[in-house]
Amino acid sequence: MVQIDSLAKVISVINPDRYANNASEVKKLAKSDFWAAVKTVKPKEAYDGFEEHKITYDSSSETLEPVYFWVIDKLKEMVGPTEKLIDTFTSSPGSGHFSEMGLKATQMQEQATKILGNVNTVIKSIVNIIYDLKEFKIRLEQYSAANSKNKDEKEAGLLSLKQIWMDNVDVKRGRGSINMLAQDLNFVTIRDAFMMADSEEAVEKLDLNDRVKRILKPRVQEFLKWKDLSGKELKKRYDIEKTYLKSQVNSLKLYTRWARPYLRAASLLEQKESNNLSLVTAFNTILMELTLLSKKDFDFRDAVFNKNLPDSFRDLKLKRNYSSCVLTEFVFTGIPQRVGQHYTFGGRVEVTFRGYSLNDDEIKMLKQKLEESDMNEAMKLIQGTTDDSLKVLQEDLDALLKEDDEEKKEEAKGEDTNPFAALFGLAEKKPGKEEKKEEKKITEIKPDNYTEKLVRAITETSAREACFKVYDIYKKGHGMACHPDWYYNLNVQVPHSKWKGILGI
């Protein structure tokens, strides 16, 4: 799991040229082991590559919620859309909060285990139905071949069905069956004659004695009736089994949808390991860590309007968007106090604001790395044990369930026949072409071209300014000692892009 204090290092590894002092070493190591590079990276100091401001507020009588929601509202107002990247907590083992959260997590795990037991039962049923349907399908192909207009195909189909009839139907006559007559009673020609005749009239044309013909005619007639009736019944059974398979798949989707919230809740209620000095075993303390990412996408028209670029840049478009990003980290060390059914937390909160300029690829890689490290271990185990078998099982489900036109129409609307996708939140709709592109993992960040370097410099300036403003307004709004407006009044301006002087803006 990514620690909140190492998130800045992750960004430094993603873009070492801009945010790492040992860029060449980090780039070389990151190609083979990204997380080893995170451990060895030396991030640039604040104001050298990014903006950083920190607020520390200590009050045992006030809670974290007012600080948290004030910052969220201001980030949305001054920067843009805000999302949560990290949300973890750890209680000291001797506290009542630890026991209560552990009990809740256990309840979620037990509920998930019960539902997953039902999932396993349905999976076994689905596997058995699939194998039955495959056998039915093979048999139905023989019936289809026996009714074909192609002479060779029809002959092959009839021979297969005759063999099945002798082995499964006629054999019940005992010593009176065709096989036993040929073997024990010296009716040497009767088996070959039965395989050759496809009607009663064909029996009459064969060069056989009357005794053999009298035995063979009713057998051929019985076989032809069996062929027609058994073909219809087998088709009915095939349709019934296929309908049952659909119902089982729908049941599996339902069970997995039920299991997912419990697995998710159990994951969120898990407490991460921490060696923080504040967490003494016998104390009643809690450590909470939250990280928010706010971003504002760059727009050439806004840059021209704000006189950051000349008018000739107005209609330019970039292959990848660049954003002014503010990374806000909360580290809260508090004392849980039970109030009714819930807890309140008073204590010390440290809020760190960092301003970066990141493009779409860098943001995607950051989220990918967070998912790699933060994915719940139980979800990993479930996904790992089922992935290989599900690929094969999904092929069978597609082959069997996509035969009907109705199913094809439903799939065209975006339904997913994979019941296991619901467990991981993938069953809402099939990804389109654009979504498939977004799902590709970002393994390497392409360097900035000339225009992108210019845009990054402007978005970095905007991010640094927004970072300082949120920090400054919070302190002034809460009557704290704050900066004497040096950004605005003391001839020390907000850092501008180096392109400002070159372009003469």
In brief:
With about 500 residues, this protein is an alpha+beta fold.
Task: Give keywords.
505 residues, alpha+beta, 5-stranded antiparallel sheet, 3 domains
Structural class: alpha+beta
Our measurement of the CA-to-CA distance between the termini, rounded to an integer number of angstroms, reads 45 Å
- Give the domain tally: 3
Percent range for helical residues?
Answer: 55-70%
Structural shape: elongated
Fold and architecture overview:
The chain has 505 residues and is an alpha+beta fold. It folds into 3 domains: 1-42, no CATH class; 45-92 and 284-374 and 447-503, no CATH class; 125-253, no CATH class. Helix content is 56%, strand content 14%. It has helices at 7-14, 16-19, 23-30, 34-40, 64-78, 96-146, 151-168, 178-184, 190-196, 200-205, 210-269, 300-305, 360-374, 377-401, 405-412, 433-439, 450-477, 499-503, and strands at 51-63, 82-91, 286-297, 322-339, 342-359. It has a 5-stranded antiparallel beta sheet. A hairpin with a 2-residue loop joins strand 4 (322-339) and strand 5 (342-359). Helix 5 (64-78) packs across helix 17 (450-477). Residues 422-438 and 488-497 have low confidence and may be disordered.
